[in-house]
Amino acid sequence: MLKNKRILLGVSGGIAAYKSPSICSLLRKKGSEVKVMMTENAKEFITPLSLQTMSNNTVHSKMFNQLLNTDVEHISLAKWADIIVIAPATANIIGKFANGICDNLLTTVFMASRCRVLIVPAMNTEMLNSPANINNMEILKKRGIVILDTEKDLLACNDYGSGKMLSPEKIVDAIDDNLTEKDLAGKKFLITAGPTVEPLDPVRFLTNHSSGKMGYALAANAQKRGAEVTLITGPTNIEPPKVHRLVKINTTQDMFGAVGKYFDDCHVLIKAAAPADYKPKYYSKDKIKKNSSNYLDVIELEKNPDIAKYYGKNKVGQIIVGFAAESTNIYKYAKEKLISKNLDMIVVNNIVKAGAGFGTDTNIASIIDKNGETEDFEIMSKSELANIILNKVKNLFS
Ligand code: PMT
To answer: How far, in Å, is the centroid of ligand 1 from the Cα of 58?
Structure first.
């Protein structure tokens, strides 16, 4: 959760400093306040003006620049931050941190800080793997400081190997992860996402418009909040989040089997997927020729298992959250599903409303609890809605 968080970004003198303005920009777009400290060497790679512009704050670099304000700058900066992020972190800075050297503003603020520290290394492969640097990183890890990995790539020095700084997007994700309270730690979430595909022949199948975004947002946020997430997903066009276990399926029957495999061991089942209620009664192993039969004129369908209903009837202590994709009488139909499927909560979204339902990054939903209490929500990102749903699930634990 980055909204209203105070991020103190330290920039040291490596070529990867050119990415630090992008880090500032991404953090501010997610609602964080960003202040920047930079070493004198960093100024060889990026100007203070660039960082001042992208952070929308003054850039701090000199120890004795008291003209800026009356308080002791390195102490006030250290106290201000929710997290200090050093990106890029050179071998030099890592060595100074590990050995308590305070010879500039950045190292002095680090020494005075008591908040979380995230170090993002960027250096030549040989320096990264040098005994001194490895020892220094071990010292810092033992003090509870988080040091991110680097990536393998062609480096600025034309060597190929590890040492490349992570992308701004991955760094911001790591900051978000570090600032998110692990309030779901110890809980096992089983989450379904996306559509199912019901084949007619090797070429044709029935499916729906589910993109997987709602389920992926639930899985990503539950995992970030410390839960052990098993994500069962139909075929989608977006990258699923990094979770404890990812299970890819095609048909509703596949999804039914996958849920069955992990249901007994989970605390919560969230059914955000859109499994097909029906499948073609007959599957042709060869492509059905257009003029060969009237089979394509009338396709007979048969029912698929109702997964939520089955597990609603067979749960033993698990919390089951369902979704209702409706276009009319949304509360009536959602309440009927809440009862008929024996759910603990149902999230209803009007799939014909702009900004809601299938494929959108946002959703407009109402949440109905077991007692029929309904809470309506304005349009918001599926990630924000996911956290609201997870908060309600968390309340059911207690
Ligand atoms: O994936 P996105 O593009 O982000 O879209 C999100 C969404 C619109 C798919 C999601 O918000 C949503 O509404 N998911 C439920 C879709 C659906 O199948 O709704 P339903 O009213 O038909 O089903 C009710 C509940 O029963 C759902 O929890 C569903 O997962 C479950 N179900 C349905 C059919 C079936 N055979 N087995 C089930 O478990």
So the answer is: 48
Q: What is the mean pLDDT of residues 303-320?
A: 97
Ligand 1 atom, smallest distance to 365 CA: 11
Q: Ligand 1 mean position to 367 CA, how many Å?
A: 14
Flag whether pLDDT at 250 surpasses 60: yes
Give distance in angstroms: CA of 186 to centre of ligand 1: 27
- CA-closest residue to ligand 1 atom 35: 306
Contact yes or no for 216/242 (Cβ under 8 A): no
Active site residues: 157
Q: Do domains 6-179 and 188-397 have the same CATH topology?
A: yes
Residues 130 and 124: their CA atoms lie apart, in Å, by: 10
- Return the CATH architecture of domain 188-397: 3-Layer(aba) Sandwich (3.40)
CATH architecture assigned to 6-179: 3-Layer(aba) Sandwich (3.40)
Query: Taking the domains of the chain in order of start, what are their residue ranges?
Result: 6-179, 188-397
Taking CA atoms only, the protein residue closest to ligand 1 atom 21 is: 324
Residue 124, pLDDT above cutoff 60: yes
Q: Which residues have C-beta atoms less than 6 Å from ligand 1?
A: 194, 210-215, 252, 271-275, 277, 304, 306-308, 322-325, 337, 349, 351, 357-359
Query: Ligand 1, residues 208, 210, 368: which to mutate, most atoms within 8 A of Cβ?
Result: 210
The CA–CA distances, whole Å, from 311 to 320, 342, 379 equal 8, 9, 30
Q: Residues in the chain, how many?
A: 398
What is the tens place of the pLDDT at every residue in 58-67?
Answer: 899 987 655 5
β-bridge partners, 268: 189, 319
Residue range 331-390, pLDDT digits in tens: 999 999 999 999 999 999 999 999 999 999 999 999 999 999 999 999 999 999 999 999
Q: Please give the share of the chain, as a percent, with pLDDT higher than 70.
A: 96
**Summary count for the chain: helices (H), strands (E):** 13, 22
Residues 137 and 29: their CA atoms lie apart, in Å, by 31
pLDDT band at residue 106 under the 50/70/90 scheme: very high
